[in-house]
Specification:
heterotrimer, A mainly alpha (446), B alpha/beta (255), C mainly alpha (418), A: 446 residues, mainly alpha, MetI-like fold, three-stranded antiparallel sheet, 18 helices, C: 418 residues, 14 helices
């Protein structure tokens, strides 16, 4: 009897559990729909976030490319210039001193007036002359005559840039339909420009000036050569300083340092330096290198030193990661052959870590190349119209050049700014590509 | 056990890792020629003990060795002795083959180079060839000395590591489970090589394979929980052990 | 550079390299003659063995010669007076000392001499010096900021600086101008910095976090492989490029959009700078969060899935909770990055120190003011330039505290799951 009642009881329990679980399942099923919807929404948010980031990237690249690509071409005038002796060297002595200061502007003006003999009025002539890039063209003639005085009296063919307004008009950025008073180019000038274009005197060509000239006040004569040379100097100095500091500190911390408070301090220091805002390094450079040590402002040497301090923590981190990726077997093998600890680290471990170190250093140098704020602090914002010859010449750097040009609102400048950015980004992509290529290549050789 | 002209004499050797005592006072004499095998369950301290002979324990942080280990009567833990010079006399082969990621030639030449043992390429060539011959690898690699040592098979790599050790002209070769990463054929070749080498060198081998210990060694020491339990001729240990713990281990009841 | 300096530098290199070669060969000769009658490679370490190989004797010589002539070079540079005789004596001294050292060290070459140990000691010394530069850099930053700031606070009261509501340092340009001391109340600057940081984090925080979640939990391996590097590109773009983007595109877009809605917004606004800065910070947050989310053990996720939870529920209730300290650390690092960012705000936020909470107005930040105060002509003692260092000090201290907290939070978090 006792057993049968027990069976009945357990049966009742079973049906009850069954009913309960059924109820729960139904409830869960109802609930499931809203849970699925929530799941779907969550995933959608994730997709949206990714799309937002990618869209921002694409927008940035497209807006820069759209603005910048026209700057790689520029309108040039091909002029036949008669180097009249009576203007250049009135007394006929052709004294070098005289040739340097001669009135080449006059020569150029005559050439322009000859193209439109019907223009005689003084004001009109001034407008006509304004179509050329006067300072660039006269400089070109001056150099030519100074180097070869025998040219005087002859007619030479010159290719000079047009003024930026002509360039912008022909590129379609100055609206011909605007009322004349709102335009930078007058109606007469438009007629002349179209005529010159038809006669084949104005032609669009690849803009070599952008690559070969230093900065200038005239956009049609401004280039990034000075900034690029300055940037190369800065990166080379920063590399030469940051690589030994970074690799040395990493080697010391990972391989040789006793584990104590002192090495902890160094380690915390390096970790924090990596996250200090870059502008603070600029303040350091200004206070220590320039005010305390008395180095000049605006020079690549100081820029390189400041950015080396900025970059070396990155190299430390990369080096330590690379050292740790080398297994202990190699070092043990060297030690067991009677190599000293230092020998086994320098002769066996370091060569194996080298690809990682190199990759990290190149990436650190890419950061250095893009760094702007610290350079502003040490005065590299000066307007420098010459390509620097040594690391102690005043100079600017490519990102600073971009910053300087971005200040001017004219279309001629913003297209050059964007072009300079495109060049900077291409260099950065090449550097990162080189890092990846090197790493793959060296790792394959192992 | 009595050993004539022992190479190593160890008295009360203790090894600490921090607060943990891994070896509790080992006394042992190692013969000048022949193979001595250390056996025992994992964690018994046999590898730790092996590493006291070339002071590789020095490289582990927090490891301390006390007691005395003498080699030919000279205390190898003497303050004035450079462990670097000791390790040139006591070569070591590890569990996992660890050739340098360089050419076979450079692998063998590395030791002689850091010790400045040769002058000129001809001497080095001769030394590399002699070492590879002794390690039984010469015939297999003589035409491709410039390929990377890491490109060889596991067994060849292990013999390359032995050649690398031999090149420094050591007196002792320590082997830490040298066959554990090898297949049976490579293991057989390695064991044959050990038999050849024992004429010339004092070899100490740590192994977890009792069959291997029985095959290659002349004397066997059984370690258990950081103690040396029994040390005798290999035959005696495997046929008539004096301690029940040894008996249990070799019959498979422990370990 | 002076010719004589160039000559001495060349001489130093020649002496060092020459010393190395000469003494190395000498050591090799002695070594070879000492083992002339023995088999190759057998004379080692048994009484007659050499402690160090020949090249270490060479290196030892090279180090000593290089070091001594470097000392002479520096000393000579310091005492230089311009006379030709002095220069010649200087040159001769470097030459003589170098040659003397090389020949003195000849005697040291013996089997017992531990040249290798000495060379290694020297290497260690060099490594210690190199790693000391990290400490020196921090020391230099703190010292220079503190020193100049103290000079600033001797002219302007500390409390006025920290709590003043009026920032117009430009009025102090000329001494005869009215209000010549200028006013250095930094609250509008702090407010502007905070406002832009807030805009940036509003964008970067959710977007970066969702990217990390999506990529680590939902996206296929192939998607991840393409999308991740693309997002990393955002991190590699120099900030000056972002600044120009804000100035050229984002600012005008916001202005035009606002105009169609009927109100006017300047091109330079907290919103434009903040949005672009937010985009810049996205990869920082997403990659750091990705790391911490991946560090949450799979077993935790499996436990949640086994209870029938969906991915998003697991994510929100289990993984997110587990990863929270790490994510907070990532956000703190991002905040510190946003506060210290310079070029975007210099180019896109403006320089007017408005005390406002309206993101559609132009505001200014700590970094913008540092740049504004220190570019252009400056006399170093004016409160105007010194104020830049005071702002720099504030910036350094705040970012340092944020970094310290973030790093320790992340480290503790890592330890928990390691």
């Amino acid at each position: 009897m006792a057993s049968s009642s027990h069976i009945q009881n357990s049966e009742a329990l079973e049906t009850e559990t069954k009913r309960e679980s059924q109820l729960a399942a139904e409830r869960a099923k109802k609930h499931l729909k809203s849970r699925r919807a929530r799941e779907w929404r969550f995933k959608l948010w994730g997709r949206a976030a990714v799309l937002f980031a990618l869209a921002s990237l694409i927008w940035l690249l497209f807006s820069l490319a759209g603005t910048g690509f026209t700057a790689f071409q520029q309108n040039f005038m091909t002029l036949d210039v008669e180097l009249t002796e009576s203007v250049i060297s009135p007394d006929g002595t052709r004294d070098p001193q005289e040739l340097r200061g001669a009135n080449y502007r006059r020569v150029l003006q005559e050439t322009m007036y000859d193209l439109f003999p019907e223009v005689t009025e003084r004001r009109e002539r001034r407008d006509l002359f304004a179509l050329t890039s006067a300072s660039g063209a006269t400089h070109q003639i001056r150099l030519m005559v100074y180097n070869d005085p025998s040219l005087i009296g002859q007619t030479v063919t010159l290719t000079v840039p047009t003024s930026d307004n002509v360039d912008q008009l022909l590129k379609g950025y100055i609206d011909r339909d605007l009322p004349e008073s709102l335009r930078k180019v007058s109606n007469e000038q438009i007629v002349w420009i179209d005529s010159l274009k038809k006669r084949g005197i104005i032609k669009k060509k690849f803009n070599t000036i952008l690559f070969t000239h230093p900065d200038s006040r005239d956009p049609e004569l401004a280039g990034i050569a000075g900034a690029v040379v300055g940037s190369i100097m800065i990166v080379v100095i920063a590399f030469l300083l940051a690589l030994p500091i970074g690799v040395g500190s990493a080697l010391y911390l990972d391989e040789f340092a006793p584990k104590n408070k002192w090495t902890d301090l160094i380690e915390i220091n390096i970790n924090n330096l990596a996250a200090v805002p870059s502008i603070v390094f600029g303040l350091l450079g200004l206070a220590i290198f320039i005010n305390f040590m008395g180095l000049s402002r605006s020079i690549p040497l100081v820029g390189g030193m400041v950015l080396a301090l900025r970059a070396f923590p990155t190299i430390v981190v990369a080096t330590r990661a690379a050292l740790r990726s080398v297994g202990p077997g190699i070092v043990n093998g060297a030690l067991s052959l009677g190599a000293s600890h230092t020998q086994s680290v320098f002769q066996q471990k370091l060569p194996l870590a080298a690809p990682g170190i190199l990759t990290g250093s190149i990436i650190a140098m890419a950061q250095v190349l893009g760094e702007t704020a610290p350079l502003l602090m040490i005065g590299m914002v000066a307007f420098v119209t010459e390509v620097p010859n040594s690391v102690t010449d005043p100079s600017t750097a490519l990102p600073v050049q971009i910053f300087l040009w971005s200040d001017s609102a004219e279309r001629a400048w913003s297209e050059r700014t964007a072009a300079a950015i495109i060049i900077l980004l291409v260099i950065l992509i090449l550097m990162n590509g080189l890092a990846i290529w090197l790493r793959n290549r060296l790792e394959k050789r192992r | 056990m009595d050993i004539q002209n022992p190479k190593f004499v160890c008295r009360d050797v203790r090894v600490h890792y921090g607060d943990f005592e891994a070896l509790h006072g080992i006394n042992i004499d190692i013969a000048d020629r022949g193979v001595t095998a250390f056996i025992g369950p994992s964690g018994c301290g046999k590898s730790t003990f092996l590493r006291t002979f070339n002071r590789m324990n020095d490289t582990i942080e927090g490891a301390r060795v006390s007691g005395s280990v003498t080699m030919d009567g000279q205390d190898i833990y003497d303050k004035g002795l450079d462990p670097v010079l000791l390790r040139a006399r006591v070569g070591m082969v590890f569990q996992k083959p660890n050739p340098f990621p360089k050419s076979i030639y450079d692998n063998v030449a590395y030791g002689p180079k850091i010790h400045g043992m040769t002058s000129g390429k001809a001497e080095m060539d001769a030394l590399v060839e002699r070492s590879l011959r002794r390690a039984g690898l010469w015939e297999e690699v003589k035409d491709r000395l410039k390929i990377a040592g890491t490109g060889l098979s596991g067994g060849q790599q292990q013999r390359l590591v032995i050649a690398r050790a031999i090149a420094v002209n050591p007196e002792v070769i320590l082997m830490d489970e040298p066959a554990s990463a090898l297949d049976p054929i490579a293991t057989a070749k390695l064991e044959a090589l050990i038999q050849e080498l024992k004429e010339r060198y004092c070899i100490i081998i740590v192994t977890h394979s009792m069959a291997q210990a029985a095959r290659v060694s002349d004397k066997t020491a059984f370690f258990y929980m950081g103690d040396l339990i029994e040390y005798d001729a290999t035959e005696k240990i495997f046929t008539n052990p004096g301690d029940t713990r040894t008996q249990d281990y070799i019959t498979g009841r422990t370990g | 550079m002076d010719q004589i300096i160039l000559y001495i530098l060349i001489l130093m290199v020649v002496l060092t390299v020459g010393g190395f070669i000469y003494n190395k060969n000498l050591a090799l000769d002695r070594y070879l003659s000492s083992r002339a009658h023995e088999e190759i490679g057998t004379t080692l370490l048994k009484g007659s063995g050499w402690h160090s190989q020949a090249s270490y004797h060479g290196y030892f010589t090279a180090w000593v010669v290089g070091f001594c002539s470097f000392l002479l070079f520096v000393a000579g540079l310091y005492f230089r007076n311009g006379s030709e005789v002095y220069d010649l004596i200087w040159l001769a001294l470097v030459l003589a000392s170098g040659v003397c050292i090389v020949f003195l060290l000849n005697r040291k070459i013996s089997p017992e001499f531990a040249a290798r140990t000495w060379v290694e000691r020297f290497i260690h010394f060099c490594l210690i010096v190199l790693s000391f530069i990290a400490v020196l850099t921090t020391f230099g930053i703190v010292l220079s900021l503190l020193f100049e700031s103290l000079r600033f606070f001797s002219k302007v009261s500390f409390l006025d600086f920290l709590f003043g509501l009026q920032w117009s340092p430009q009025t102090a340009l000329r001494a005869d101008q009215a209000g010549q001391s200028g006013s250095f109340g930094a609250v509008p600057i702090f407010a502007g910095t905070f406002l832009i940081m807030l805009v940036a984090m509003t964008i970067a925080g959710p977007v970066g976090l969702m990217i990390a979640i999506y990529l680590s939990e939902y996206a296929s391996a192939a998607t991840r492989k393409i999308v991740k590097p693309l997002i990393e590109i955002l991190a590699g773009i120099p900030t000056v490029v972002y600044g120009f983007f804000a100035l050229l595109t984002v600012g005008p877009t916001i202005r035009n959009f606002a105009e169609t809605l009927g109100f006017s917004v300047p091109t330079q606004s907290a919103l434009a700078a903040g949005v672009v800065m937010g985009v810049m910070i996205i990869p920082l947050i997403s990659s750091l969060s990705d790391d911490v989310i991946n560090a949450v053990p799979q077993s935790l996720r499996d436990g949640s899935y086994a209870l029938g939870a969906t991915k998003s529920e697991t994510m929100k209730q289990v993984v997110f909770k587990g990863a929270l300290p790490g994510i907070i650390g990532a956000f703190l690092l991002a905040v510190s990055r946003a506060i210290g960012e310079t070029m975007i705000v210099v180019m896109a936020a403006g320089r007017a120190a408005n005390l406002t909470g309206n993101p559609f107005e132009a505001v200014t930040t700590v970094t913008v003011q540092i740049v504004a105060l220190l570019t252009g002509d400056q006399e170093f003692d004016s409160p105007k330039t010194l104020a830049a260092f005071a702002l720099g000090l504030v910036l350094f201290v705040i970012t340092l505290i944020l970094n310290m907290i973030a790093l320790s939070v992340v480290r503790r978090y890592r330890e928990r799951y390691d």
